[in-house]
TrEMBL record:
<dbReference type="Pfam" id="PF00571">
    <property type="entry name" value="CBS"/>
</dbReference>
<dbReference type="InterPro" id="IPR046342">
    <property type="entry name" value="CBS_dom_sf"/>
</dbReference>
<feature type="domain" description="CBS">
    <location>
        <begin position="9"/>
        <end position="65"/>
    </location>
</feature>
<feature type="domain" description="CBS">
    <location>
        <begin position="99"/>
        <end position="158"/>
    </location>
</feature>
<protein>
    <submittedName>
        <fullName>CBS domain-containing protein</fullName>
    </submittedName>
</protein>
<dbReference type="InterPro" id="IPR000644">
    <property type="entry name" value="CBS_dom"/>
</dbReference>
<dbReference type="InterPro" id="IPR051257">
    <property type="entry name" value="Diverse_CBS-Domain"/>
</dbReference>
<keyword id="KW-0129">CBS domain</keyword>
């Protein structure tokens, strides 16, 4: 029987809530030496993730989108909505204002580990959020979890 995500994932992950302060989340990331935290609502449903990438806007600042003016009209060369979204992240004070809400990469606990590893590789993500059928977060699978699994089973392949 193939190994599943449930066999390898970290259970009971450290989570934050949208209303938590950003400074609290940053402190947790630094103290735990982790690169991201799942964000759940009060019912335990996954609503986002806050990662080191989301926090870079806080230090990096913002550059307005490039534009040209023609006959008193402004034509943006980049999507102004993206700038507005990034600006909101740069100025955010709570986890909910800064977290990534879209494009969360989730898997079910019964997903084969090989398929999960392929998904991580294809989507270029560092972690998969493991959710049950109701959308509740039940674990996190990181690249490190997969490497540790590979190391513990290396002698079996020889």
């Amino acid at each position: 029987m193939p190994t599943t995500v449930a066999d390898v994932m970290s259970r009971n992950p450290i989570v934050v809530h949208p209303e938590d302060s950003l400074s609290e989340a940053v402190k947790t990331l630094a103290e735990r030496r982790i690169s991201g935290l799942p964000v759940v609502d009060q019912s335990g449903n996954l609503v986002g993730v806050i990662s080191e990438s989301d926090l870079m806007w806080q230090e990096a600042g913002m550059t307005p989108p490039a534009y040209i003016m023609i006959l008193d009209s402004v034509i943006y060369l980049e999507n102004p909505a993206k700038y507005e979204r990034d600006l909101h992240k740069a100025l955010g004070q709570t986890v909910g204002e800064v977290m990534t809400k879209k494009e969360l990469v989730t898997v079910a606990p019964e997903t084969p580990i090989r398929k999960a590893a392929q998904l991580m590789h294809d989507r270029k993500v560092h972690r998969l959020l493991v959710v049950d059928a109701a959308g509740h977060l039940i674990g996190v699978l990181t690249r490190g979890d997969i490497v540790r699994f590979m190391a513990s089973h290396a002698n079996e392949d020889e």
